[in-house]
Structures are given as structure tokens and as C-alpha cells.
Prior knowledge:
Blueprint: E1 9-10, E2 18-19, E3 27-30, H1 32-38, H2 43-47, E4 53-55, E5 65-67, E6 77-81, E7 84-85, E8 107-112, E9 126-131, E10 140-148, E11 152-163, E12 167-178, E13 187-199, E14 204-217, H3 225-230, E15 244-258, E16 263-278, E17 289-307, E18 311-335, E19 341-371, E20 374-391, E21 418-436, E22 439-450, H4 454-458, E23 472-484, E24 488-500, E25 503-508, E26 513-518, E27 521-534, E28 539-554, E29 556-559, E30 562-565, E31 577-585, E32 593-602, E33 605-606, E34 614-615, E35 618-630, E36 633-640, E37 648-652, E38 661-664, E39 669-677
Amino acid sequence: MAKNDYEVIVVTSTQEQRSKSEIAESVSVFGQDEIEAVLPGHPSDLLNRAAGVHVNNLGGEGHMTSIRQPLSTAGVYLFLEDGVPTRPTGFFNHNGLYEINLSQAAWVEVTKGPGSALYGSDAIGGVINSMTATPTEETSAQATLEMGGDNWQRALISASSGIGTKNQAGVSYNRTQSDGYQEASEYQRDALTLRLDSQLSDAINAKTIFSMNQVRQSGASGLREDDFNASPRSNYFAGDVGARDVDAFRLSSELTIGIDDQRRLTLIPFYRHNDMTLMPPWMVSFDPNQQRTEFETLGLLTRYRQRFEHSELITGLDIDRSDADYHERRVIVDSDEAGVLSRITDTDRVNYDFNAIQTAVSPYAQYEQVIGDWRLSAGVRHDRFHVDYSDNLPEIVPEQGIFPGIPFPSTHLRPASQSLSFSRTTPKLGAIYSLSSRQEIYASHRHAFRAPTVGQLFRSGASAGTEGLAPVTAVSNELGWRLRQSAYAVELAIYDLQVDNDIVTIIDDEQVTRRNVNAGKTEHQGVELGINAQLSNAFSTSLAFSRTRQRYRNFEYVCGDTTCNFAGNDLPRAPRNMANMSLAWQPAELDSLRLEAEYNYLGSYYTDETNSARYGGHQLVNFRAQYAITPNLELILRLENVFNEAYSAYTSNQVGSSELEYRPGLARRGVLALRWRL
Length: 678
């Protein structure tokens, strides 16, 4: 979080630079200084410093996110890079942040709650927007080399320079590898970003970005309680069991046309290509398979902004066409002499082979009016999706979907080839009242929705009629207060988020049959507090705290011979309390040295819908030190989990089962780095 918050500029809420004091939403901003001080090895290292945000570490850069939602794999977040969604609607991946190079971002913004009228599906819990660094006119370069525990090795290299008088080019490269905390959980990534900023004329500027992220990650399993306590580095997987390979490429060019001082037109054509091969670790025990998902997208984001004397109008049209192929093969997994699942045998059975072409057309408009000390805003967006789905497998459907000759009672229902359409209109209202030049209160009313993913619609499993799944809808109301003084800044937000028609997975038939259905209404209420303060010339501190209550308003379905009803229960994996606090020391007489201690707290939560088991939460302490050896060379130390706390990054159990599964968190680990600047 930045000091002197009144100077913070954000772009996510309006897609143009705007003072944070003019935004009727809760937005956390991490500037380049903070990113370089934290040197995040995982997205959680940075994002967990924001009030109301928790990202867990599932190994490598695998993660789940909790922003006004439980920790889950649900597609309720929108991940952006320079305002361009990294994935199309219908292809959400909860690990999606590893397709963005956060470690070398110029700044990162987290908008909490439903996305504004400028964004569509998936932005229920929040929006995370990573901004690439602007190339410098003068030649500059930077290299950071790291080594640490678990054979952690990373090189962060960047350079930029002017090209002629009207172009600046920049490049950044991230090479990371680690043996992983658990046994046989190796991880490797390569991330490359190229950016070219060009002044095409006095009125036209262009920003072209190429982004490549390649991830190779071995499988890491959850552990039974006895193994979690006795040998947390254990791993029930080895070899290629549970592994994933990801190749994500994006190319975009933002063309900004200044028609005059009041009018601006922005056009962003973009291309995405994503290829992921995955053996889902959560399916190894009941439906082992290997999946390959590949999609490519052509899209265009358009935005027209016109300013008047005391008002502003933003309107635009987003178009996105994605062509996806999905292929899934049934495999058999066997264990070695030690009981570790390490041998994969392919079968002749193809569970799924289909193509889905999705076209999205989304017009939107947002209007703001300033009346005295009031700033009022209203926006609306209409999203329409059309999906053409083609099943490529022959028309062979044995009784009840069971294929003979396979020693496993699995069902893989396949919808017939068809076309589907979804549409949704989402409005937004906001109001800000300036109490003074450094203090304001705000209120917002926002709608959001989440379209069913392609996998939920057409990878049916045991669920008949999944093509009839309806979008999830949400309505949020929020009140906030912000105060900025020369030595401190305070932010407070209170929110109520109601979610209807949620898509959930129901498990029955002795933990074998899993069905995706629209079931239940949930409510998410909470308060978030953020404080940043310069305590003295040497000491500064930050505090991020949130308290939430997330419950089922209605969740009833037939399970076996009875009816399960969890209305009134807390949602599983929804921590009540989260906190992060840091204290930094940088004395004026020794400004080449900076020390920081960080405290991270995750409160307890129930592990399933019945609220019969609970994870007790955990507390972690991290330490960072930076020392400038010369003006161009810096020595950096990160010590993670200083007190070697044994904790679980994610704890869960299936409904009807008392056996908990724990994902072990990192033990104490030190990382030493050298950073050189030109």
C-alpha cells in the first residue's frame, strides 16, 4: 500500500487514470516501490497485504483466492493485464495469476466486490489488474538473482530504452525454478513481456504488449491428518501424476486517439492463445484422467470518453471470439512400493473430445456528474454470449453412461452438439461526498454475474442436463470512508453481497457421483480496514484487517433418500477474520538499509457445508532486509515463516466424510538476492 494515499492514481475502475478519491469502490494499489520491496515469489506474498484479500499457496504458483468469497476454484474473479482480460469468459482457471508476471509489474490494483459496468462476467468477488512497466526514454536495466531453500532459483531481468524520438521499448524476463516444498513437486516458469510505446502523431499514441508465460509444475497432493502432522513434506504423487503444463500467449495493442482536449477514443485489438495439459490432482482418487484444453481468441475492446464541464461519459463495445478444443482421456494410476501414486497407464477410452466456439458482444456506458461536493455515477453493461458446441466423439452411449471393460464405475455423460446463448444486463450506481479535500465517504450499488464455464456446460460427468445451467447473479451494496493526512491514510469499507443461483458440485452415492447444479443463495457481509502510517522519520507501518460472515441463505437438494438443507450454515473455507500488519525501519542516517517485519493472520473456517469440522487458522511472520552496497548494487534477504509455523494452506473434506485433507504450507525458508541497476 502506498503512503500519502491522496496521490494514488488508479485505472481499473474507469479504464483511464483517475484519482482514487474519485472512485466509489474499495481499491487496493501496490506501487512499484512496494513490489520491489516485497519481491513476491508467489502472488500471495504481495496480494495478502490488502484488506479483505487472501491468496493461498498451493505449490509453485498454484493458488486459490478469497476476496469477499470463500477460498475455492469458482470463477468469481477477473484477472487483467493492462486492462485486457487474460482469459475469456467461460475459461476461468483459479490458478490464473500464474499467467501474469506480477513480480515485475509496475503496479497492481485490486478492486474488491463486483466489477464496474466496464467489465462483465467473472467479476463477482473482485478484479485484479496488473500493469506492465512503461519503457524509459533513457537506457535502463535491472537484474535480480535469487537463491534460497527448496532449491529456489530465480532471475528477474528487465531493460528499456528509447528508439528514435517517438518510441520506447521495454523487455522483462522471469525465470523461476524450485524443487518445491513437498517431495517430487518441482516447479518451473518462464515469463517474457515485450512492450513498445509509440507516438504515431501529436494526437495518436500506441502501446503494444506481447506477454508469454510458460509453467511446468509437478503434482502436489493434499495429506491425511497423520501425515500432515508427522511428515508435511510428504506427497502422494510422483512422476507425472497431478502435473500440469501451461503455455499462455497474449498480444495486444492499445491505440489512443485524442480527438481534442475533451474527447478520446481507445481501441485495443488483442489475441490470446492458451494451451494447458493437466492431470487434475483432485480427480485422481475417483476419476483419473488427462486433459488438454486449448483456445485462441481474437477480440477488440473499444472505449469512447467525452468530458463536459462537470460531467463525463464513457461508452464502448467489447467483442471477443474464442475457439476452444477440449480432449480428455481416461487413465489408470497405480502406486509404487511406498504407496505413492507414480505410474500412469493410458487406456483406449476417450471421455470427452469437443469444440466450443464462444462469441461475446458487450456494449456498456458509464456517466459521472459532479454537483458541488457530490460526485454521482451510473453505469450499465449488457453481455451476450453465444456458444456453438460440437461433440467430436462417435454416438456410443452405453447404458447409464458406463463404458464396459474399465474397472471403475465412472459416468461421463456427453451433451449432444448444440448452440447456447446467455445474456445479462448489469447496472451500477455510485455516489461520493467530499467532506474535505482529504476525506470522503462513498456508497455503491453494483450488479454482477458469472456465466457457466465451458467445462461446466459440456464436461457433464454424472450431471444430466448441464447445458441448462443458468448464470450466477450477484448484487452488492457498499459504504466506505477514506481519510488522508500527511503522515497517515485510513480506509474503511462495509459491504453486503448477495449471490443467487450459484453453481455448486453435489456429491452423493458414497462419494462417487458428482453433479453440477444451480443451487442456493448465499450472503457475504463484512468490514475491511486499511491503515498506512509514517510513524517517524525511520518507522512506517501498515495494517489490513477484515471480518466477514458468509452464509447460506438457501441451499437445499436431494441427497440419496433424504433432503440436505444447509440454510443458515457458514460457507465452507470462508475465514471469519484476516489480517496483515507490517512494520518497516529505514533510518535517515542509514538510508541504504531497510528492514521489515510482517505478520499475516488467517482465521478459522469450516471445512464443509455441514459445519461439522473446522480448521483453526494460522499466524505467520515474515522478515525482509534490503541493503544498498553501492548506488547500483543491493543485497536483499527474505525470510518466510520465521518461526517455522506448521500450517495448512487449504483444508477441506467432502460432505459426509469426516476425513480432512490438508495442503501443507511452506516451512521456514530463506531467500538471498542481489539486485543490480543500470
